[in-house]
Amino acid sequence: MASPAAASDLNLSVESGGSNVATASPGQTVNWSVVGELSDGANAGLAFFLLDVSFDGGDLSQADTPSASPMTSFAMPNGLTNPVGFGGSVLSGDLIQVGGAQNTINNTFASVPIGSVSVGVASPGSAETLVTGSLTAPTAPGIYTLSVSNAMANVVRQGETGTPFWAVDAAGIGDVTQLTLEVVALTVDVETASIAGLGVQNMSLDAGIANAGRSYYMLGSISGTSPGLTLGNGTHIPLNFGPYFDLMISLPNVIIVPQSGALDGVGQASAAFVVPPGTPTSLIGVTFQHAYLLLSPKNYASNVVDVTLVP
User: Fold this and answer.
1) Under 8 Å between Cβ of 218 and 292
2) Rounded to whole angstroms, what are the CA distances from 273 to 220, 236, 254?
3) Computed from CA positions of residues 109, 113, 114, 115, in that sequence, does the dihedral angle turn out positive or negative?
């Protein structure tokens, strides 16, 4: 008789593009996945798993139904799932009970499950993509997290042949690594600019299609980003007030060109930081920080980008 499995754990990693850290522009579609790998070989692979998925940047839509082996063995009709499907129930923007179980009971009477059991799923060294889905990045710049919680799993007992059924054992949940998503509305091509060469840093503004056509105004500081400035309406500009902040307002379109304008039909625009002729060498090593504010109303501020002056 086969003996019960040792205390195997299912390690989980929430990823986008194969990484636990991703960057997106406002409103961008971000593909995500949950990858699983068992901690040891004291079993014959994953037999069942369920997990919840939540995103602190907005509501999620149902995860994808698997279309390829071995994960099709966990989805109806081959496997058994949450009544609404493998992709989970959407509840208050979260996904509840995503996943399913293989037909380890060798059911032949009911309409589901009817599939064959796939062994060795998520075995050590062969991590398996258990779940895939997509989300929409928030419009507001910031750091967000896509998280897995309430996970549970069991494994096929080592040595099982499926006669008369496949015995399973409970598995623990080991390491769970969440996905960190940074939403950025302002990006640059370089991080330094030469004084002697009258260097240029090209800036790309992208506030998302939800802000298409709105007017923007570039701001700057050499006095840091914290605590920043908070407008009366609560909008936070991540720049400290100082001489350079004041200079950009009093002398527009000298250092950043254009310093103001309108976003296009998809919420994008371009600008450039240009080192002016005659810039004193005493500024070598100084880091200038820039962000933009959307106008009418002033309710949206971008993330900060840096540029350091070099000889």
Assistant:
1) yes
2) 10, 23, 9
3) negative
Widest CA span in the chain: 86
Looking at the domain 9-183, which fold is it? Answer: Immunoglobulin-like (2.60.40)
Give dist(CA 69, CA 52) in Å, integer: 22
186-310 fold: Immunoglobulin-like (2.60.40)
Whether pLDDT at 5 is above 70: no
Structure tokens at 244: 């350079």
Q: Count other C-beta atoms under 10 Å from residue 256's C-beta.
A: 22
Would you state the pLDDT for residue 164?
95
Query: In this structure, are strands 46-55 and 142-156 parallel, antiparallel, or unpaired?
Result: antiparallel
9: amino acid identity, one letter: D
Closest CA to 224 of 253, 204, 244, 250: 244
